[in-house]
Amino acid sequence: MSSTVITIKDYSAYSFVVFGDTKIHKDKLKELGGKYNGKLSVGPGWVFSLDKKDKVQEWYDGLNLSSHHDPRDEIIAQLKKENEMLKKEIIDLREENQELQEALSS
User: Fold this and answer.
1) How far apart are CA 13 and CA 31, in angstroms?
2) Of the candidates 42, 66, 64, 63, which has an alpha carbon nearest to the alpha carbon of residue 15?
3) For a designed S-S bond to 17, which of 3, 45, 61, 87 qualifies (C-beta 3.0 to 4.6 A apart)?
């Protein structure tokens, strides 16, 4: 698993930013009220008004980054499962195709 680095930092008297490896969390950051800005002085990140800090901090604390949990691992596991199901479906279709070809040739 890879380590995810996300930082929360005060940005102005009225706002704070969340930046770092945030791409996989973009939907949640948007849902929490963040506005993406690719040209911040700290680098690309999400700007929030200070009134959203408690909710964003709660979300951040729930990420459990210290254990190097990467949410992409769950997606990868799901994709592998779907891939195996599709492989089985392809095998079934090939067998069905072979049976049909045999029936047509006899």
Assistant:
1) 23
2) 42
3) 45
